[in-house]
Amino acid sequence: MAYGKALVETNCARCHAVGTTDESTHPEAPPFRTLSERYPLDALEEAFVEGVSTGHPDMPEFQASPEQIGAIIDYMDTLQPE
């Protein structure tokens, strides 16, 4: 989980809220804890494999290795409400 958290803090936190209570700094960047309301987490895994290039209009393209994708999804799963 620590590896996934470090990845999202490095690559995503400048726009997205990546914790349980923080707010996104970009108005069109949803908090990671709410992404499962829009997309099943397994669908996000597929998007990461293909290279995330959609989202908010100025979101940079993000590509990750399978190991990184697994770590990110595992971390995101810890953010979901029970």
From TrEMBL:
<dbReference type="Pfam" id="PF00034">
    <property type="entry name" value="Cytochrom_C"/>
</dbReference>
<dbReference type="InterPro" id="IPR009056">
    <property type="entry name" value="Cyt_c-like_dom"/>
</dbReference>
<feature type="domain" description="Cytochrome c">
    <location>
        <begin position="1"/>
        <end position="80"/>
    </location>
</feature>
<keyword id="KW-0349">Heme</keyword>
<protein>
    <submittedName>
        <fullName>Cytochrome c</fullName>
    </submittedName>
</protein>
<dbReference type="InterPro" id="IPR036909">
    <property type="entry name" value="Cyt_c-like_dom_sf"/>
</dbReference>
<keyword id="KW-0408">Iron</keyword>
<keyword id="KW-0479">Metal-binding</keyword>
